[in-house]
Amino acid sequence: MTLPIERDTGLSRKAALAKARQSRRPSRLGRRAGTAAEPDYPVAEDAGFPGLLKRVWREASAAPDLPSAVDTLLTLAGHVPADIQLRALPVADECALKVLFGRSWRGDGIEAARDAEVVGDAEAARAIGAADDAEAAFLGEVGLNTSGRVVLRVPSKGPLSGAEELVGGVLRVPWSGRDLADYQAELARATARLRDSVADCRAWLTAAGPDGRRDMLETLKEAARRTAPFVLYSGDRQYTNFRDRNTLTGKTLWPGHPDCALSSLAPIPLELWSDSDVLMVTCLTLLVRSAGFARIEEANGTQLTIDHVAHLLERTRLAYNGVPGGGQVPPAASPRVAALGDLAEAVARRRREITSKVQLYREIHGPLMHKIERVAGAPAGDARRLEADLCARVRDRFPVTGDTLGELGAAIAASPGWLAEPHGEFGTGLESLVHETVRAATATFDADFAMSRGMRSLTALVTALREQEWAEIATWDLPHFFCCVVPTPEARRYFADSPAQLADVAWSMSARMQYNSWHFLVGNLPKSPEIAARDYFVPPTIPDIAYYSDQHHHGHVAAKVRFSIRSPQSVEVLGRAFNGFVDLRLLRCEGLPFDEQDLLAAHRASGFIAKATGLAAALAAEGADFDITAFDTQWHWEKIARSPR
After folding, report:
1. 123 vs 83, which has greater pLDDT?
2. Which whole number is the average pLDDT over 52-60?
3. CA atoms of 486 and 484, how far apart (whole Å)
4. Following DSSP, what letter does each residue of 492-540 receive, concatenated?
5. CA angle 70, 75, 76 (to 5 degrees)
6. In this structure, what DSSP letter does residue 381 have?
7. How does the average pLDDT of the chain come out, rounded?
8. How far apart are CA 482 and CA 458, in angstroms?
9. At the N or C end, where does the chain have fewer CB atoms within 10 A?
10. What number is the average pLDDT over the span 286-301?
11. CB-neighbour burial class of residue 443 (10 A; exposed 0-12, middle 13-18, buried 19+)
12. Which of 209, 372, 239 shows the shortest CA–CA distance to 305?
């Protein structure tokens, strides 16, 4: 495939190589890449998650009482639901928090009613952990570690400073004699429950046999390799494919690496697997069977226990059963693993049944990378108003009529030829449509940035598909893709009020989105050796709303991507569905987060772009030869840094 954006027959090979070595940053056009003495826009060392944790700890330390401080820690000062942190606690910490503060994800915590039996204000205060140190039977601790987890010192543990990498210090937590007795009883029940659960998991894995366990491990290794970052816990042990602390196959550990917990289990008899590994393999298998690899991210930041998996599956079952029609999924026959396996498969069948009836999406809570699947309601007044506004902004710029995006798409389908021909300032109508839709979306949704990505040469893709050139497609790199990023001019206030910096930020987003297109494309192709060996993620199929996503991803931190909507869409090319082929992304650097109605309207907008892209692909299949040449570095510089305000 010839790279349309690099095509210049007038250049010698030497000149072409020199051009290739130039910086792609808009403000450095024409300069050699890698020659800057220091970063143009340095980011503070504690930017993102480390800075958030420091602020959380300061707020918790200044809280008027221990219960308020614990609430601040559990929610990371209002940035995540407390439920995620509660389900991240190992057994002993879970029991302690339940006894001392009445906080439990199970909903059966010891509440303040117990305190009514205690005579006197001082006694009642001690029952919730606020007594003077001199009256305490045991002086425990509560803290926050650098992974963002709430950690506790319980009677069987030493000081947290010796066992945890803490964000700050610790808050002292007095335990009364009553607290110790309640904790002992609660811990005995929880330990017995966990012991029975592990035994049940071992029996289930035994029944699967060596081949069944081998298949599970291979599936989970592929899931870890092809799924976005996740961090999971089993007791005090961490399982993650995230960055340099990987314990599973991912960006750091290649498949089969001896440090990968899954790879190391393959040759080991089940009897020698640790309890943590037994729970990990069983729980992840159940999650994957309920919705594919992406379901793992719905456990992000939590403990891998059968109780948690049962809770997640039951929540999902109820949500799916709320969709009218079809067969209702009954609850699990028992809390045993075999029954939960049946429920997982029933949930997966129900999910396939309802996807054509309702819109599924995920909430993403950025600080802990936790995702929650939701079933969207019907579009209401806000979604319809947003769609009407977008249509009004787009309609007059193209040879189409209609009052909805669906009607505009149908009008294009009736006469699509202009998509492959010059239109306005662009070389093709498709480029013009992408730009105008993205520009309109920035205004309609009150976004600081909007963007949409795709492939530069649908003609080349059609040719490669016809010849089944899977190995050739696997070699295509970032310049084979594009992303049109349109910020509002006012967004420069977040970037030193500099149009040049705004253009640089927009281009960095564009480059990252090119990477995403590259990362998803081959996930739609047959798994030839070349495809299987290449790095890719399973392409996304449902939209999402992200809250406080300016935490971990270095690009998100630098670009201040706080609230966002991502709306991926499938495009059919030569009868093959390419999931995640295009999308529309909206982001805000500050202010209010997007909501469900915003998402529903945005998904209609990305569907409009996908419709046009599919029609353009059909034109390419019929012989049209055209490339997308806009949306490169120069284009973003001209449109953002040099355009009149």
Report:
1. 83
2. 97
3. 7
4. GGGTTT-HHHHHHHHHHHHHHHHHHHHHHHGGGS---HHHHHS---PPP
5. 90
6. H
7. 90
8. 12
9. C
10. 97
11. middle
12. 239
